[in-house]
Amino acid sequence: MPRSATAMSQILKRLVTPPPIKGRNHTEAQTELYLEELSEVIETDTICCQTDDFLDRPPTPLFVPAKTGVDVATEIPSGDLFDFDLEVKPILEVLVGKLMEQALLEVCEEEELAEIRKQQLEFEEIRDADLMEMQRLAERERRHREEKERRIAQHLEYQAKQKELVEKIAARTFARVYLEPLVPNVYEDLYIQGYFYDVVEHGVAETFIPWLLDAVCEELDVEAKCRALLDSMICEATNEVNEAYARLDACELEEGVVGEEKEGDKVNELESNEEMKSKGFHGSENKGEGSKPENEDARNQSIEP
């Protein structure tokens, strides 16, 4: 139990917020899951105060340094230091002399400036005349140069046209010489290669003759099939007759001599059988002959268009 109590106290110490720093306070904050309404109302009141208007700043007084020495005074009577007329005369002479000298220098300078201005005007007139003459000469030189260039360009253009004319004449002559035999040769080659043909002849050769050959081949195939069928029928009939004769020969050998009546009856029967077979054979031949004209008529009708 004591151990558990100490453990709980340590846990509670860990969960408690540490103390605030010096000069600060903790503020309680709600950290629970559900918010709680704060019902405590703090009473407040509004007050105000009035201050006087600011007065203007008074002017700053002049700075007067403090006296550090001792004041003394000296009295000088009139005429003790200097004589005004005597002392002022050389000063006035110097001032008047300098003034006259300065005036003379200014007059000389003005005359010199006037002379310089006059010479400058004369120089400008001469320079303007020279510039005008130079411009006139430059303009004349420019006109001469442009005229020269224009004439050179005209001459070059004339030479180019002459060269082009000669080339055109040569090309036309060569083309005429080259094309005169070319056109007949081309037409002849095209005619030989089959590009020029008669429409009727081409239609007969390309359409009618192949169709005619196909129709003839079909008729020949039909005729060959009919002949093969007829040959097979003849072979079957001859085989049956031979078998009948073989059976008769076998019967005669086994029975021996038979009465004349029986022989006559058998002969009659055989003759009747032969007649029937021969009739059937002739009928098949007639059928084949009858189909042949029909085939020929159909072929003639197919050829007539």
UniProtKB/TrEMBL annotation:
Composition bias, Basic and acidic residues: 259-299
Region (Disordered): 259-305
Main subcellular localisation: cytoplasm
InterPro entries associated with the record: Radial_spoke_3
Keywords per UniProt: Cell projection, Cilium, Cytoplasm, Cytoskeleton, Flagellum, Phosphoprotein
Family the entry assigns: Belongs to the flagellar radial spoke RSP3 family.
Name of the protein in question: Radial spoke head protein
